Amino acid sequence: MATVELRFSAQPEHVRTARLVAAAVARRAGVDEAVLDEVRLAVGEACSRAVGLHRSHGITAPVSVVLTEEEKAFSIEVGDGVPEPGSDPATPGGRGGASGGPDEPESDGGEDEMGLAVISGLVDDVEVRSGADGGTIRMSWPTALAAVRP
Asked: Is pTM beyond 0.70 here?
């Protein structure tokens, strides 16, 4: 099982890099060429969502992206550092709650839900988890079976 890990500061300009790396690793893992655009779009949406959550909650920890190549599947996990509501008293409102700074508007969770809807439309196998340490979106795609060689 090959794994590539990325960590980047929560800046929108880094999302493009994550998309490019994800597409390159997916291609190498054997994800069908016709699906690569979906991989790029889903990773871009998940990373943009994580960046937005970090910025709106004043979190300075990096966004994490873990790309894993398995025998018959390729998976991507995008993690953010925003604890689920009620798990950290220092974070008012948690996900979709009050803003993390005076210059940031309060989030109503609408953008967050829209991003998840877009990801769900692009990826058949998606799992969203959140806990005290933050949230994770895990997406996976099948890979082409290795060709039998003589």
From this structure: yes
